[in-house]
Amino acid sequence: MRGGERVSSTRRAFLGTSLGAAAAVGLGSKPAAAAAGRRGCRRIPPSGIGMHLYTMRTPLAADFAGTLERLAGIGYATVGVSGRQGNPPSAIRQMLDRVRLRAVLEHVGYDTVTGSGLPQALEDVHTLGGQWIVVPSLPGVLHSPAGYREVARQFNRAGLAARESGLKLLYHNHGGDHEVVDGVSLYDILLAETDPDLVGFELDVYWAAKGGSSAPADPFASARASYRYLLRLRY
By the 8 A CB rule, do 14 and 209 touch? Predict the structure, then answer.
């Protein structure tokens, strides 16, 4: 088998496993629950499928309230907020409540989460009705093993503040997070050096499967990460 075929086959297998296990490995699930899911329950309940509003950024910019209404009409029950298009959190919450949608998370920049803006960001997520505050990316200057170790330290600190406010801190991965730098997987640093009680992961399955290097990425191979994921699936 040629190298390219091997990688594609591995990635397809990974995606199949991820889709089948999505309900079992949602954030906060315990390993026993994941094991039970692998034994038989492989369906994602409708309540577990939401729309990430970054996907809808163009129509939201034109008509925020109307776009939320259309999403509710399609059948979505939950959304993740990523960009408010100039609307304050309280106004977005009113729009969501009006059409019976529920925001479960908001994407908030790394500098805000690790800086003086964190308390307000946590308050805003509460206003939206969310459970999770999510860092969507990292500054390029931190793209090194030392940088990711600093990120892990900052995430543990911010994660503690989030927990004390009744929320959970998550990190959303991209391709570069799965690169191997100086012989070390950057993503593995985050998994190993963040406290699982304080920090979880919004796993973008596309980027995890695509990876950031020639080797396919398989974050599920790590037992220590098996119950720390909120999955984001793409089609």
Answer: yes
**pLDDT, position 199:** 96
What is the enclosing helix (H) or strand (E) of 3? helix 3-21
Express each pLDDT in 148-189 by its tens digit: 999 999 999 999 999 999 999 999 999 999 999 999 999 999
Residue 10: pLDDT over 50: no
d(CA 61, CA 118): 25
* CATH superfamily, domain at 108-232: Divalent-metal-dependent TIM barrel enzymes (3.20.20.150)
H/E run at residue 199: strand 199-204
Question: What is the residue whose two structure tokens read 């899911």?
Answer: 37
Tokens coding 179: 């690169």
Query: Rounded distance, CA 234 to CA 49, Å?
Result: 11
Residues 234 and 202: their CA atoms lie apart, in Å, by: 13
Q: Is a pLDDT exceeding 80 seen at residue 123? A: yes
Residues with Cβ within 8 Å of 194's Cβ and at least 6 positions away in sequence, in order, are 152, 155, 156, 159
Cα 83 to chain centroid distance, Å, stands at 15
**What string of DSSP letters covers 110-148?**
HHHHTSTTHHHHHHHHHHHT-SEEEE----GGG-SHHHH
Distance separating alpha carbons of residues 71 and 99, to the nearest angstrom: 9
230 has a pLDDT exceeding 70: no
Query: In this model, does residue 104 exceed pLDDT 90?
Result: yes
